[in-house]
Design brief:
Layout: H1 4-25, H2 35-42, H3 59-66, H4 70-74, H5 80-90, H6 107-116, H7 127-130, H8 132-135, H9 139-142, H10 145-149, H11 155-166, H12 173-188, H13 194-202, H14 210-224, H15 229-240, H16 251-265, H17 269-278, H18 283-298, H19 305-311, E1 314-316, E2 326-328, H20 329-343, H21 350-356, E3 361-363, E4 375-377, E5 382-387, E6 398-406, E7 411-416, E8 443-454, E9 459-467, E10 473-475, E11 488-493, E12 502-511, E13 517-529, E14 533-536, E15 543-544, E16 547-548, E17 552-554, E18 557-561, E19 564-569, E20 573-577, E21 585-596, E22 598-605, E23 610-617, E24 620-627, E25 630-637, E26 646-653, E27 656-661, E28 664-670, E29 678-683, E30 687-698
Helix pairs in contact: 1-17, 1-18, 1-20, 11-12, 12-13, 12-18, 14-15, 14-16, 15-16, 16-17, 16-18, 17-18, 20-21
Length: 699
């Protein structure tokens, strides 16, 4: 039986493998990049083809991060219909998450529109509803990795769960792809060879299926030509190529590439991802699928470093929940491990259960080689890497910070980013949206240990934060020489930013000795915790990626006008901010109705379709619950005037909700549907409104 640590470390390794494959293959995605063009331009791919400031979101990683949340929202027995609701709940329509290539062209766009029209899963993805061409595109396999990771060593359960999840948008061979890939990941936890993984995965699908037949063709070719994957690729072109299958990106040719990369890569992640990338067709998807399987099987190795280091334990997602879009891979692996243990009827570690819905972050550096996305500035004299040389009582690892020959007056920053701006990226992939993971008033804690090798004792450090809009650095503690005798505790409260978010938390380093300083700092047990306070002054925000900084949004037009947020929609429209796990809160907005019948503030939002809201609607003051349908919890006559400013306050404590307008309590209600979520703004129908100051206070 696999123990908790083994499950966690293989999930972590598998997700790293997925991220490496997606990042390696993304720059040469079809259709402009052909197999021959990749070969002629790059030859043998042995390194990343492009450098990125940060690699932006990708649908291949969006799906594994978000769709598995069906088990949080609907329980461990979540059905296909529940996963369909999850698709609707976490995707902003035609922004991020999927390839929005048009109804009848993009499988995911088609399924989304079906779901919006009230067609539930699995009908939403069925051949009967959409036809074979749409149902059998590649998405059947590219989103399902997490269903394999939460069923370690149980390939049949993984296959069944992935088929339910994939049926939201796919059918036929699309479901065979889902079953194979999830089962292969599940078997990779316990397998002895890549051949065992492939055979186990194939045992979960019909032997007569096209998916199994292309697999057998690749395996047979490999047996006769074990050293020539390019000859195998030529065979796939001739017998299983894109010209034989309809649609933009059919699953069968790409399945052939996945099998080819697996069998010719022989369990080595870098080689497997390289083959899948050089082979062309849907390069990021194929390299990502193969990378997830082999990463789980091989586990992290030093030979991964050239691909792993730029990942730095961090990927971006592009759903509607801004703090979930900042994906710390070790933390996400912990979440999946909790689900895996619960599905086995086991009790997860108590601290991991806290992490599962943590208001804040906790980095323990326990995953093998984990860096938790810590960064340095400047890059050439300060470097970070994982270490197990020095540990605390509560962690198996730490972050090693090399300070390389600092001269007098030199220094730098070591930091983690709780928030990202458009300028942090140099591509537009799947247009992510962010809200800060750390807020004013929260407590930051960490430990440091200095290991000086050369110098004369004048290395000083100070904790700090940086403001996201102005770039202003604020020291949050005194400068001092850290201890070289053991772990030293640091703690500070994030100061009041007067309406400006933070985008760095870390330590400043300065050296004032006469001799060059060479040595190390070790950092461990980093956390951000406690209740925070968010104040949004629209005059300090800007427009980015189609929305407003610090907000995610769905539908409508959100802009900044005369120092206020301006919302305009022809249907329903929402914008959210704050942490995904806010609990008891007071949300107060300076709200001015301009037209239409619905002007609301939101609390405990768990996506587009699960939240509480209060304010003005259809000539009444209301408190409502939205749970894929609207329930009015309390109402009273109230005719809001257009053009007038109102202080609208929605307070949620436990199961009690209260709506106040201009300081007077108007409505109260009780409900137990949602225990946590974001804050935000909503219009349920066509209209306009403007919002001044928005404040979220945790109670």
């Amino acid at each position: 039986m696999l123990n908790t640590t083994e499950i966690f470390e293989r999930i972590y390794s598998g997700f790293i493998g997925k991220a490496i494959g997606v990042r390696l293959g993304a720059p040469v995605e079809p259709t402009i990049w052909s197999y021959d063009r990749i070969r002629g331009t790059y030859g043998e791919v042995t390194e990343y083809l492009r450098d990125f400031k940060n690699f932006a979101a990708d649908d291949d990683t969006n799906g594994p991060v978000y769709f598995i949340r069906a088990l949080r929202d609907y329980g461990l027995g979540a059905t296909a219909e529940d996963v369909g609701k999850t698709w609707l709940n976490y995707a902003a329509e035609e922004h991020g998450m999927y390839w929005w290539g048009g109804f009848g062209n993009s499988t995911e766009h088609t399924a989304y529109q079906n779901l919006r029209a009230g067609i539930p899963a699995p009908q939403s993805g069925s051949i009967a509803q959409n036809g074979t061409t749409v149902a059998e595109q590649i998405g059947g396999q590219i989103f399902i990795d997490s269903w394999g990771w939460i069923h370690p060593g149980e390939p049949q359960k993984a296959a069944d769960a992935s088929a339910r999840a994939a049926s939201v948008a796919h059918d036929g061979e699309g479901l065979n792809g889902a079953r194979f890939c999830a089962a292969a990941i599940a078997q990779a936890f316990v397998a002895k060879s890549i051949e065992e993984i492939i055979e186990t995965g194939l045992s979960t699908i019909p032997a007569s299926s096209l998916y199994a037949r292309v697999a057998r063709a690749v395996l047979a070719f490999h047996k006769d030509n074990p050293g020539d994957w390019r000859a195998c690729r030529d065979m796939l072109t001739a017998e299983w190529g894109y010209d034989r299958y309809p649609g933009v990106c059919h699953i069968i040719p790409n399945a052939g590439v996945v099998f080819m990369a697996l069998i010719y890569g022989q369990g080595d992640l870098p080689r497997t991802a390289e083959i899948a990338t050089m082979a062309g067709w849907d390069t990021d998807c194929n390299a990502g699928n193969a990378g997830a399987i082999v990463g789980t099987f091989q586990q992290v190795q030093p030979g991964w470093d050239k691909y792993r280091k730029p990942i730095n334990d961090f990927v971006v997602a592009s759903g509607v929940t801004g703090t979930i879009n900042v994906v710390d891979i070790p933390s996400f692996a912990r979440e999946l491990t909790v689900l895996a243990l619960r599905l086995q009827g086991k009790e997860p570690p108590a601290l991991w259960v806290e992490d599962f819905e943590r208001r804040g972050v906790r980095f323990d550096f326990d995953a093998p080689g984990a860096t938790h996305a810590f960064r340095t500035e400047p890059f050439n004299q300060i470097a970070v890497k994982a270490s197990n040389e020095r540990q605390t009582d509560d962690a198996r690892g730490s972050l090693e910070i090399l300070l390389d020959r600092l001269e007098r007056g030199q220094g730098g920053r070591i930091f983690w980013k709780p928030f990202y701006r458009r300028a942090d990226f140099d591509d537009e992939r799947y247009r992510p949206m962010f809200t800060p993971l750390a807020d004013d008033g929260q407590t930051v804690r960490f430990k440091l240990w200095l290991d000086p090798w050369n110098g004369d004792g004048h290395l000083r450090v100070a904790p700090y934060i940086r403001r996201a809009m102005t770039g202003a650095i604020e020291e949050t503690g005194a400068w001092h020489v850290p201890s070289s005798e053991g772990w030293q505790d640091y703690e500070f409260t994030i100061p009041d930013g007067k309406g400006e978010a933070i985008d760095e938390i870390g330590i400043l380093v300065e050296y004032f000795g006469r001799l060059k300083f060479l040595g190390r700092l070790f950092l461990s047990e980093f956390s951000v915790s406690g209740k925070g306070r968010t104040v949004i002054d629209p005059a300090k925000e800007v427009l980015e990626w189609g929305g407003i900084t610090r907000f995610t949004w769905n539908r409508g037009h959100w802009s900044l006008q005369q120092g206020r947020i301006h919302a305009h929609t022809a249907s329903d429209a929402d914008a959210w901010t704050g942490n995904a796990y806010l609990r008891d809160v007071r949300v107060n907005a300076d709200l001015r109705p301009l037209s239409g019948a619905s002007h609301l503030v939101v609390a405990r939002a768990q996506g587009t379709s699960r939240f509480y809201a209060g304010g003005f609607q259809n000539g009444e003051a209301v408190i409502l619950a939205e749970n894929h349908g609207t329930t009015i919890l309390a109402r009273a006559p109230f005719k809001a005037e257009y053009g007038r400013d109102y202080q609208v306050n929605l307070t949620v404590t436990g199961d009690r909700l209260a709506l106040s307008i201009d300081g007077s309590l108007v409505l109260e209600a009780e409900d137990q549907a949602f225990g946590y979520g974001m804050a935000g703004l909503r219009m349920a129908s066509a209209g306009r409104m403007s919002i001044g100051r928005l404040e979220i206070v945790e109670l």
